[in-house]
Design a protein that fits this description.
Strand content: under 5%
Helix content: over 70%
Order of helices and strands: HHHHHHHHHHHHHHHHH
Radius of gyration: 20 Å
Distance between the termini: 36 Å
Amino acid sequence: MPGTDERARSRRALAAAASYIILTSNSTASSAVFVAYRQQWGLSPGDVALAFSVYVGTLIPVLLIFGGHAERYGRRLMVGIGTGFMLAGTLSLLLARGFPELIVARLSQGIGAALAVGVMSATFTEAYRGKIVAGQALAVVTAFALAGGPVVTALAYDLGGGTNLSYLPMLILGILAVGLLPFFESRPAPAGVATVEPPLPVDSVRSGLLFAMPMVFVAWAGTALYLSLVPSYLAAAIHVSDPLVGAGAFVATQLATVVASIRFGNVAPQRSGPVAAAGVVVGLVLLVWGTHANSWWLIGIATLVVGGSSGVASGASFGVAGLIGRGQRARVFARLLVAAYAGYSLPSLITGIIASRTSFLAGFATTIAILAVIAAATPLFRARAESALRHAARPAPIEQLTGFD
């Protein structure tokens, strides 16, 4: 019955969103404690950036190798294994006594995110039906996912959890999330069975990804800088070191993401994405200017601009992936997430290394210049992407269908 199918679809979308939020919140939970690690363990900005960025040392290789395996072995298995690795990383954080354990925990969490996040993204975009397009809805879910960990951990820290027990609430939520596994498909479609959505030709998929990847790189770079180094930057520049202040700045970016994603939720991604990517760069410039001038109102404006622009650019890239990924969305999202997590890690690492050797100002200036070049190049790929998106809007002739490796 149609009504029953719609209810099942809604439950699957809700379960995918909840799983995504809990899993990703576990991966971001350590960000609120980085300032405390610097004070108690004597970590440098470079150490903090490495601890944040080493996550992708396992994440990107696992994404590249296993990104398409959900369509071979079933989504439930990949989400289950990914959740196990993520929880092992959170448990390591709960027991950590120094920098090496922090690195091991982040590497484990990288494996978990690589195996599960692409599958969750694909499941949500397939099942979601709402007032805004699926890509922007996923950006809203991502905002809650990224903000959840730092907020919960910062509150637990201020309530006396310290650098270890602060992770206990996220670990418990992660264990409870295992109960959502039945909502994911247990096995792929049998060989020879026609899919409802035939996949697009390789060239169309590649053209769409070449447009979406720079946008998501810049978007996640802006988010990651607020998640990893902006709390330390604020502590060094304007002497604010409470974990809740850093977590609050990051939460403000994610609230701006939610508002902007809803406000521009039905704008075509080829129109909104490049503009939003440029907005991330403008926001980061305002952040540096505001801290240099010791101006809280300018820092606040910068935070909102970075958050809103990151959300729209990220949602635009998700929207492109959802359209060109028909019939193989888990695999296409895995490819897109390689660029997303590269943006999530490399700019923070570059900023931290330079800050350790010179100053935060030099580190942020270098990173902003790199992101400006990437954002400026994004429109160059728009024309081919528009052709791919038009192709995605109509059924592909069977003789043109081919796989995507």
